[in-house]
Amino acid sequence: MLAPMTRTRLAAALLVALAVAVHAPTLRHRFLLDDGVQIFKNRAVTDGAPLAAYFLDRSTTSSRADYNTRIYRPLRNLAFRAVVLVAGVRPLAFGVVNLALYALAALGVLALVSRLVGDVAAAAWATALWVVLPVHVEAVAYASALGDQLSLVLELAAIVVVLPAEGAGAWRLSAARMTGSAALAAAAMLAKEMAVTEPALLALLAVALGAWRARRVQALVAAHAAVALAYVALRTHVVGAVGQEPLTAHALAGGLRDAPWLLAHYLWITLAPLGHAASYRVAPPGALALVATVAAIGAALWLGWRWRRMVGVGLVWFALSLTPVLHLVPLWADLADRFALFPSVGLALALAAALAPLTRRAAVAALAAAIVVYGAGSVVEARAWRSDSLLWRYAVDRQPEAPMARTNLAAVLLGEGRLADAAAELDAFHALGWTRADVELKRAYVLLRLGRADAAAHAIDASLRLDPSSGPAHAIAGQLALARGDRASAARELAAAHALAPAHPSTALLALELGGAGDERVDYLRALEALGFDDADGAARAARACLLRAPGRVQCQAALGRALTLQGPLDAEARALLDRCIAAAPDPADRRRCQEAEWGAQ
Description:
The protein has about 600 residues and is mainly alpha-helical. It has helices at about 5-25, 35-40, 45, 50-55, 75-85, 90-115, 120-130, 135-140, 145-160, 175-190, 200-210, 215-240, 250-270, 285-305, 310-320, 345-355, 360-380, 390-400, 405-415, 420-430, 435-450, 455-465, 470-485, 485-500, 505-515, 520-530, 535-550, 555-565, 570-585, 590-600. Among the domains are: about 10-240 and about 375-385, no CATH class; about 405-560, Alpha Horseshoe (Serine Threonine Protein Phosphatase 5, Tetratricopeptide repeat), CATH 1.25.40. Helix content is about 70%, strand content about 0%. α5 crosses α9 (about 145-160), α5 (about 75-85) crosses α10 and α23 (about 470-485) runs parallel beside α25.
């Protein structure tokens, strides 16, 4: 019979081995999704910034201005910077860190659950099932999800450090532990906004363990609540908003209506062995479905609490920790697998509490089978994360009504030179009833390239209605006017584009075309414009035309190298062109763009 400490250590070693065995294949994956804007196109990550800037300057968050008014994760960005300093801008380095954090998180889940249920074996089985859940694939495979992983580890540590060693024992509340716990909670929030629910979870555990009346426990929860309030105030000050969109009475009412429905969907994707996607679309519920969902959630929470206290705690944990992403405050995404990472710990706790009194032989076979099924599901789901092409095709197959899946697949198809297919995806986005200025602008560009001038005109009109201050949209509108021979309208659009975006390639291109220029500058600007719209084929054609007019022109070589990188893996020609650009391009901006293209193609 193994001693308790030996059993715990053996369980910990097996859980780490299981995490590595299931997720090690993701170490071969490339940068995906928003890794570009958040990592290798973000100068705060690749070049560094003053320490205070990560916390007080929102431009350090990413290279996209619209992201920087919606998310605030300074500790995550510092972690990105640390990875780059140690190992360079390499997807393998981020993959190793993500996998190490996931293994560490498994140990944190084991420590938390074993303390709360007082049964190491039940906690180990529940944690093993947590480790292999396919809903966690995104958090491990996606480099930018390092913040989710870091926040998970820190938040677990903030709770575990003050919990009693045995479920109903005395809380460990020395001044050092209380201070350390509050600091860990603050760090978790600075890595990912979802950790703001941590004080509520701590209060939940205090109530469930019968410790709430202790003054030091109340002081601990109050300190954590103060940390959360300070974090929200700091985030709002830096970002300039509470949610990802303006918080209005209408948005709050919609969030209150949709929250139970979204919670039910999060339970589904957390437990689903297959069918995950990088983007989801959740249709609004009917009145009957919503009433039934609310009733089912209420019944599950009440029955779980009455049956076994820790089962109820686990279910409440799951629901409570999801509140930041249930659209009670405006959010871009309907659902995301990575958002279920920390909440799923609650389900592991509920499972362990249910298992603890059972005869082991009755449960082991079922648990082992479930671990095999979910582990196989994780391996299958991870295959889609090898490239953007696989990821977004898989997402559209699984979630054809998800707007983000459509627009990102359109970008992939443009990179492959399949303009007509890209236009079909953008048209499908439009047909779903979604309108976004940047998507309508891209749609107008693609339709113009396909010779569908009337449809392009409708798209550019829609883009300008949504965002009249878009210089590129005015420039494309000018190109459309010029194509139909309306030089007066083209000149008016050029004046607007000059006022709003004087340095944009589309603005400069329209100016040259209006002036009747036909030299390599036009080809170069066409290449830059095409690159801005992910049109690899158009960029490569224009760059090669530029090189025919001006052989050896480094700017044209740089544009061609970036176009070839968009078209596929970094081949010898693309690498040589990018290396020449990085070493010799006269414009520092060109050198930077070539470096980013090389990083993104690894």
